[in-house]
Prior knowledge:
It is built from 12 helices and 14 strands. By secondary structure, it is an alpha/beta fold.
Amino acid sequence: MARALQLAEQGVGQVSPGPLVGCVLAKPDGEIVGEGFYLYEQVKHAETVAIEVAGNKARGATAYVSLEPHAHHGRTPPCTDALIRAGVARVLVPIEDPNPAVSGKGFSHLRASGIEVGQGLLAAEAERVNEKYIHFMRTGRPFVHLKVANSLDGKIATRTGDSRWITGEESRSRVHDLRHENDAILVGSGTVATDDPWLTDRSSRPRRRPLLRVVLDNRLRLSPDSRLARTAGEAPVVVFTSADAERSRVTSLAQNGIEIVMGRGERDLDGVLRELGRRGIQSVLVEGGATVAAAFLDSGLVNKVTVFIAPVIIGGRDAPSAIGGLGVDRISDALRLDHVEIFTHGSDFEVTGYATK
């Protein structure tokens, strides 16, 4: 099952809005006779690929599948049919698929055909692999991963606004891995005005859809000369702004190929996420700045947090901190992270954990 989860992760960036799925076919003596993982564009599910590799050896084997096989006709024929035809004796799956079209139906179909079905093996690990898909299916909103990079004393820039670069090259490379894992990246207008970022995935890894670049800009300050505006024809840009945004600016940005969504912004983050969800955006990496980070945290919409900490001290009461807003009144009200992991990247530290609800 651990190998099936490894295979599933090979589809990162290439399956959304579907799930990550891996499959291993093994004989009773432990011999692996087939492996496969799902890629959206190949229109073949992991089970089908593994069965094709195994051929006649699939008969009597156990299928270790990282997510419940589907029993309905979608873009592909039912995976359960393929498993039944192949003559597998047993199917082990860690978790049920939360998609209402699939949920429980795959297990029922297999059992009705006389195949032994086991559930629960490495369930927590399987949920982690498909955390974005599961959240999206359950809520209709993208999974929100907040990323922050700051100094040892919690600053994201000096008092003059200089912010490049606080973290080292290794951390910045890791950030592009995070961008690759997500369907969209989101920042506020202040970050765009200060940094004029590209907001692109430069991981050099294949992805099915271009990274959607999202800007929250209530006053529609985005310049038509910005890097985002100049490259909107190469990678999509969506700007969420207020309903009373200046029409001439809307027209100017639209001429650059930028999509303007009016009536949404920092004041309606749930609405922003639901609109992205309607577009099939399964996950969003929120990269800042301090005001946007605070708005998402205050709204309780953050699912996962990654903080990169560089061993530098900036100081200065006027130097901006990583998280803005009012903050909490009591320590007991502070957001605490669960399942925390700590990694090193060069001389920097990465702290990643899940927001407790």
